[in-house]
Amino acid sequence: MNDKCCPRCEHQSILRPRGFSDQAIASLVSWGEMEKKVVGLPLCDDCHSELRDALIENLRVATEKELQIGRAKNNRAS
Ligand SMILES: [Zn+2]
Q1: What is the pTM of this model?
Q2: Are 14 and 3 a contacting pair, CB within 8 Å?
Q3: How many CB atoms lie within 10 A of CB 38?
Q4: By 3-state DSSP, what share of the chain in percent is helix, strand and coil, each rounded to 5?
Q5: Neighbours of 59 (CB within 10 A)
Q6: Which of 19, 46, 47, 54 could share a disulfide with 8, CB 3.0–4.6 Å?
């Protein structure tokens, strides 16, 4: 069996290398979603979907904030 202990959640699982971009990894580390020691290590499916969800959620929030800033600027201009 290929089951190993996941370095992030410490559950026994099948681990695979995860293709997050350097920018995504830096963000995940700064949000505390991923520890620095885990960067570059294979992770389990659960951790992968958690990290992916965190990225999507934070991206959505950041985009909404940007839209609000954009709107506020437009209001001031008119
Ligand atoms: Zn895990």
Answers
A1: 0.78
A2: yes
A3: 20
A4: 60, 10, 30
A5: 12
A6: 47
Q: Which residue has the higher pLDDT, 68 or 1?
A: 68
Structure tokens at 52: 């992916």
In the block, residue with structure tokens 């979603």: 33
pLDDT, tens digit, 9 for 90 and up, residues 10-67: 999 999 999 899 999 999 999 999 999 999 999 999 999 999 999 999 989 989 999 9
Strands (E), 1-78: 3-5, 12-14
C-alpha 63 to ligand 1 mean position (Å):
28
46 near 18, Cβ under 8 Å? no
67 CA → ligand 1 middle, Å: 34
Number of domains observed in the structure of the chain = 1
Instruction: Give me the domain span that covers residue 25.
Output: 3-77
